[in-house]
Structures are given as C-alpha cells and as structure tokens.
Amino acid sequence: MKYILVTGGVISGIGKGIIASSIGTILKSCGLRVTAIKIDPYINIDAGTFSPYEHGEVFVLNDGGEVDLDLGNYERFLDINLYKDNNITTGKIYQHVINKERHGDYLGRTVQVVPHITDAVQEWVMNQAKVPVDDDRKEPQVCVIELGGTIGDIEGMPFIEAFRQFQFKAKKENFCNIHVSLVPQPNATGEQKTKPTQNSVRALRGLGLSPDLIVCRSAKPIEMAVKEKISMFCHVEPEQVIFVHDVSSTYRVPILLEEQGIIKYFKQRLNLPIDDHPSDLLMRWKKMADRYERLLKYIDSTELERSTEAENSVKYHQAWHKLCKADGILVPGGFGIRGTEGKLQAISWARTKKKPFLGVCLGMQLAVVEFARNCLNWEDANSTEFDPDTKNPVVIDMPEHNPGDIGGTMRLGKRKTVFKTQNSILRKLYGDEMFVEERHRHRYEVNPELTHCFEEKGLKCVGHDTEGNRMEIIELENHPYFVGVQFHPEFSSRPMKPSPPYLGLLLAATGTLSAYLQRGCKLSPSDSYSDLSDDSSLEKEFPNSEKAEMIV
After folding, report:
1. Domain edges within the chain
2. Which burial class, exposed, middle or buried, applies to 173 when counting CB atoms under 10 A from its CB (0-12, 13-18, 19+)?
3. Which of 190, 231, 334, 441 is deepest in the core (most CB within 10 A)?
C-alpha cells in the first residue's frame, strides 16, 4: 500500500480536498486502484450537525454516514463509493479509545495521547485503506489521506504525531507527504510572497514531517522566480514545487497538476508500476472541464419574496428577471424556514409557465405544498417544520426519526425507491428499472394520508418506498418536466456519469428530452460513460445547450 498524506499550511480552506481528489484522479487515470481518507480534527463524531456556512453542505454516503464535503469530492473525482469510516474525526478516535479503556483493553496502563491515540489513528488508517471502494471489489493500491486544518493547530497535533511515527512504519518508498500552502499577493505591492510558505514548511519539519511536494496556491499564476525561491528556502528541488492558481472550475486542477509532471514524480518517488503519461480518462476529463465553463445561475430565494420588494425593489425585480429568463429551475434541499416562500414562488412559476423543474428533498416537499395551496385551494397548507399548527399539514415529520437527539437520527443513506407505474419520465431515464437506490437525508416527508388528493388533481406519486407508504418521486401530468425526488441524486452523480434526474432537467431545458426518451435511453450504472464525455455525442444530445439557462 502506498500512502499519500496531504497537509495544509497558512490558512484553512486552501483547497486541500480538491488537491487530494485531483491527485487520486491522476493516479486512477494511470490504472491504479485509489481510495481516500479525510481526517477532521474536530470533536464532533460526524458532520451531521455542522453549520454549512463553516464546512459546506453535509455529504451522505451509501451507509448513511454524514461526512465532510471533501468525501463528496473524492467520490465524484475518483468514481468510488466510500464509507463512514473513511472520515476520521477526533471525536471518533477518542470515543474508540475510551470504549476500549472501558472494556478493559488497557488494564494496568495509563491511557495517553501517545501511544494510545496515535496508535489508534495509525491502525484506523491501515485498516480502512484496505477496504475496496471500486465495483471490482479489489483492494486499493494507493490511499490518499487529507489532514484537515492547518499545521500548528493544537487540535491537529495528535494526528501529526501519528503520521510522524507512521512514515517509518510504512517505509519511505511507501509514504509521501504533500504540503499545500498559500502564496499571497498583497494589492499594495503586487508581489507574490513566499514567507508564509517558508514558515509553514518550517513548522511542519519541526513536527517531524518533511514535504515531498509543496503545492502553492495563489490567486494568479506564480512566477518562476517565486518557484526557485521556495525551492531554495524550503529545501526541495524545483520540480517538487507545484503551482495551482485559482481557476474557473475545480475540474481543471487535475490537468494543472498533470501538466507539471506529477505523474513522473510519483512513479519515481513511490516506485509505482505506471507509465509516464495518463490514459484517455484524463483526456476526456479535460474535455469535460472545457465544457464546464457554462455555469448555472443562482438566485437567493428570499429575493423573490414580497418582503424584499418593499425593502429593495431593485433586487426583487432583478431576481424575478433572472427567473423569468430561465429555461429550467432547480430547487435543492435545505433546512429551516428562511427563503421558503421565495422557493414556493419559483415552483409556482415553473408549474404554471410549464418550465422544466426539479425539486430535491425540501424542493419536492415545497412543490407539494405549492400544489396544495394553489391547485387544491388549501391556503394554509404547509410543512410542520415551518408551521407546527397548520390545519393542512401536507409535509410531516417521521416519528421514528425524531427521537429527541439530533445527530445521526434522520433517514440516512442508500434506500430503495420502487416505481409504481411504467408511465414515468424518471423511470425511463433510469433505464426502465423496477426500482432505484439513492441516498437520503431527511426528517420530514409528504403526508402519506393525502397522496390520493394530489393524484386526483394530476400530481402523481410515481415512486414510493418498499413499504408503499412514503412518497419518493412525484411527476406532474401535462407538463414537459415537473419532477420532485425525496432522495438526493447529486450524492451519487459523477462528472461523466450524470444522475438521471439532473440529466432529465438539462434535456428538458434544451428541448431534447422527448427525442432522447423515444430513442430508448438507458442510463444505468453498468453503462459506459464515455459517450457523454465525447464532444461529438454531447453536441448531438445537447444541440441547444449554448442557449439554455439554468436557475438554482
């Protein structure tokens, strides 16, 4: 097993996760089996109760693990399926050691950070690195480990010490350290400064780790003189200094790294059985990155609400102008009442103007609320999440997932959704399968007692859970594409294996969905994704994609 440890310096949020994902992508393109582990030095057991403003949205794995968003990057970039134990936190490690202590595993010994915590970290990494993550179920050959936080943080010290020891246990030819650091460029002088990187590398060496590669993050491309200066003062060869400046898409990062000879370096440093050049996979990746320049447009849903019109009419009308120009509308998941009335307005617009619409989790629940208010004339219809006393609770909480505790008590992970009918757009997009398995993360659901009321007026429940009670997929009759899903298809979507609900939204927005379905599309996990990464076939599938505008 080859281990690649990615650490960070100067500031947090510097892009270690994308660097780690990109390195894994490059090595996988060379034919290696790659897995990944994320270490977060916080006390939380998992990421389920985090603020998304601090760590990004929570990512959910097949086994229901609520983890840091970086694991989502690993899965998407590497096209693998990880497990909750691929995310290590301080809380998990200490809980593991304390449980062993209570069990009597350390009888007669004082339990300490060294060696018990550090040993637990090393054992966890070695065990999890062997777990298969590809469809072939073979043991990985390379494990990329990202250590969250910043070198020098007190909370990360036990993990640094663990890897200081681990580098000797794994042996030099099997262990490599990549240090990601910031090269700031103050506006006053315009000069790229190397001192923060020098200090960060010095601190890392003082803790017993020496970087094999220094990845320098910057706003603009770094000059060669800066590279030479970092090489000289950080005691590494110039080819061991890699530059990654801000780019239009994170999908460009693997290409930047490959262009700077990182494959040749890894081949020599870790004695890897690979060629000096990547396979066609990275070439297809480059084509995808070129196409990714056309981004979705975002609207803060609060700006669509009447209260905003009274406070800032310009912002209100600008938001509605963007919405009215859109060829497709996506309302994603979320928590809390903020912006829900604006989302309801956007959903109503999509339904009445027959604009392609996809609602995910809360987005689907609000689509049902909007339909109840405006098509069933239940004016006070609402979710009990927002109005516990509503007379028409069309969305209710699930008692078995609301025990009082907050962490890890939602309906989580991969669950089966069974199609009720053959006449379903989404069923056709999924390859006419009888059921699909997608990841969930919710505590509320559409009131199952009211399903017949919606269906009588044309809002069909085309997919339900295995017990036949819970509404999982809705589709509106006589609409080009009005779809809602209770699950989160984005969790299992891949850059070159698009999730069927999202692909359907794009096809509908470009006016090509009907033709695509008539040709008998089949988008199942067994299909090759090379067709969708080829420019000519993509142009054939999305002839109007240059003109389409998507709103989130």
Report:
1. 2-291, 326-545
2. exposed
3. 441
Angle at 515 between CA 532 and CA 495, to 5 degrees: 20
Structure token digits, residue 432: 């006419």
From the number of C-beta atoms within 10 Å of its C-beta (0-12, 13-18, 19+), residue 76 rates as buried
Cα–Cα distances (Å) from 415 to 174, 209, 436, 465, 466, in that order, read 38, 43, 8, 8, 9
Q: Kindly state the tokens that stand for 232.
A: 């000289």
Judge contact between 501 and 429, C-beta under 8 A: yes
Contact at 8 Å (CB) between 238 and 199? no
Enter the tokens of residue 71. 């694991």
Helices 157-170 and 118-129 cross at an angle (nearest 10°) of 60
Q: Which two tokens mark 75? A: 């899965």
- pLDDT score for 547: 57
Q: How do 328-331 and 357-360 pair as beta strands? A: parallel
Alpha-carbon distance of 137 to 35, in angstroms, equals: 12
Residue type for position 14: I
Look up the pTM and report it. 0.88
Single-letter amino acid, residue 166: F
Equal fold, 2-291 vs 326-545: yes
Alpha carbon distance 460, 456 (integer Å): 8
Residue 526 has what pLDDT?
A: 44
What the block records as the tokens of 97 is 């050691």
420 in Cβ contact with 59 (< 8 Å): no
Cα(62)–Cα(88) distance, integer angstroms: 17
**Residues linked to residue 87 through DSSP beta bridges, in sequence order:** 38
Can you tell me whether residue 158 is helix, strand or coil? helix
Cβ contacts of residue 321 below 8 Å, gap of 6+? none
Here the tokens at position 492 are 């299992």
Model confidence pLDDT, tens digit, residues 499-516: 999 999 999 999 999 888
Dump pLDDT digits (tens) for 153-192. 999 999 999 999 999 999 999 999 999 999 999 988 888 9
Task: Give yes or no for a contact between 299 and 552, defined as CB atoms under 8 angstroms apart.
Answer: yes
CATH of 2-291, one of 1.10.8.60, 3.40.50.300, 1.10.3720.10, 1.20.950.20: 3.40.50.300
Calculate the alpha carbon distances from 375 to 359, 410, 546 in Å.
18, 30, 35
Encode 176-186: b = buried (16+ Cβ within 10 Å), e = exposed: bbbbbbbbbee
For the domain spanning 326-545, the CATH number is: 3.40.50.880
State residue 346's pLDDT score.
Answer: 95
Percent of the chain surpassing pLDDT 90: 71
Query: Rounded distance, CA 439 to CA 462, Å?
Result: 18
Going by C-alpha positions, the residue among 403, 384, 335 that lies closest to residue 49 is: 335
The 3-class SS string of 317-339 reads HHHHHHHHHCCEEEECCCCCCCC
Q: Which residues of the chain have pLDDT under 70?
A: 292-295, 401-408, 522-548
DSSP-derived secondary structure letter, 55: H
Residue 130 DSSP SS3:
coil
Catalytic positions are 361, 488, 490
Indicate the burial class of 206 (C-beta count within 10 angstroms; 0-12, 13-18, 19 or more): exposed
Amino acid at residue number 475 = E
